[in-house]
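Re: that backbone. Tokens:
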């Protein structure tokens, strides 16, 4: 900080000039990809409208040293920096500095990251699908301190970012170890001898219904494959749809305690129990919807059985397609599960819920050290990226 203060005093004692983003940064190529175009073995990551990479693709349309802003959806306005070659999807805005000798792209990224919450709250139009207008981004005023000042700010923030990443990696390793312990315990608890009868999932679940859009004028929350978080198995983002704008895959009516299992790229383990707040809503045909028969099988019991190693070994053997594998609903329902009494199922479910809570305690809130470090990072970032504007 001392070096930065010296640079500011020496190089810009009267303040910093600001300029609209469109004057100092250039828009870069982007291209829409269909889900089927993605390949998990693709060489280049794909960034689109989410917080994380959307997938991988065999081609790239940007060299790297680029920042992007998500254009639509729940994370519209989210800012990402990509260092290496990548593919920019149709639902983001990629930019780079027009002159790296005068303005560092990464400096602009850090400044916009600091402004991210403001962008999301003031520039994103909150309709049925949140959207960010490129014209509004281009008007954002960007500070233009001398290059040595930018370089020092980027160096400091890079160091903070690296340290935070190391702390998070340690946490993830601890969580992974706890998760493996939990999975071993769960599989042991859900393994029964030959004396326990087995039944195909189809025989212990009920038929579900599809919506008839021609006869319906109501609005529904739409649960797409991307709505389900792969780590915590919770529905985190949905869109509001009606007959006029419903995607072709929006067909299946769901009820509370239905199990949704993603049959597209099934080894991703995209599954969840439908909570009460989504009772009566719509999900994608990319999910196999399973509704257990009352008195035969508890929803939670089936949910846990479908997380076991035995189930995913079965899925791996029965999925079809190389680049974008999938498994049919019929094949999912052929998987045989052990059927024990309802009281025994309740006992097993209770034990697994308790162990699940213990396993997830580490991720229910960031450890104090990481929380403190994040607050420290945000405080210094705000201080570093707040400048006195040059008058006149």
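Recovered sequence:
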């Amino acid at each position: 900080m001392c070096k930065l203060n010296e640079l500011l005093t020496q190089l810009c004692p009267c303040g910093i000039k600001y300029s609209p983003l469109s004057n100092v940064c250039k828009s870069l190529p982007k291209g829409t990809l269909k889900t089927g175009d993605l390949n998990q073995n693709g060489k280049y990551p794909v960034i689109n409208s989410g917080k994380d990479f959307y997938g991988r693709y065999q081609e790239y349309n940007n060299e790297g040293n680029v920042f992007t802003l998500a254009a639509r959806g729940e994370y519209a306005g989210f800012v990402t920096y990509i260092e290496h070659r990548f593919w920019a999807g149709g639902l983001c805005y990629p930019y780079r500095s027009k002159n790296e000798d005068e303005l560092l792209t990464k400096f602009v990224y850090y400044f916009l990251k600091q402004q991210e919450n403001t962008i999301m709250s003031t520039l994103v139009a909150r309709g049925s699908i949140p959207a960010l207008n490129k014209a509004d981004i281009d008007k954002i005023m960007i500070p233009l301190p001398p290059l040595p000042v930018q370089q020092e700010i980027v160096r400091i923030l890079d160091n903070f970012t690296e340290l935070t990443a190391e702390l998070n990696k340690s946490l993830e390793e601890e969580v992974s170890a706890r998760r493996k312990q939990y999975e071993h315990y769960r599989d042991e608890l859900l393994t029964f001898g030959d004396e326990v009868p087995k039944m195909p999932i189809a025989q212990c679940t009920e038929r579900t219904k599809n919506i008839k859009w021609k006869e319906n004028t109501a609005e529904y929350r739409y649960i797409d494959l991307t709505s389900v978080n792969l780590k915590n198995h919770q529905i985190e983002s949905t869109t509001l749809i009606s007959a006029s704008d419903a995607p072709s895959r929006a067909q299946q009516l769901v009820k509370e305690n239905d199990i949704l299992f993603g049959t597209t790229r099934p080894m991703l383990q995209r599954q969840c129990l439908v909570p009460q707040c989504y009772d009566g809503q719509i999900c994608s045909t990319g999910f196999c919807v399973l509704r257990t028969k009352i008195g035969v099988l508890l929803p939670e019991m089936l949910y846990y059985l479908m997380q076991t190693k035995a189930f995913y070994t079965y899925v791996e053997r029965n999925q079809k397609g190389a680049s974008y594998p999938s498994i049919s609903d019929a094949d999912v329902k052929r998987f045989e599960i052990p059927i024990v009494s309802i009281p025994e199922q309740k006992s097993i479910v209770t034990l697994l819920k308790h162990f699940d809570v213990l396993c997830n305690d580490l991720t229910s809130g960031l450890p104090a050290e990481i929380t403190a470090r994040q607050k420290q990072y945000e405080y210094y970032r705000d201080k570093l990226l707040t400048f006195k504007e040059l008058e006149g």
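The two ends are 28 Å apart (CA to CA). The chain has eleven helices and 21 strands.
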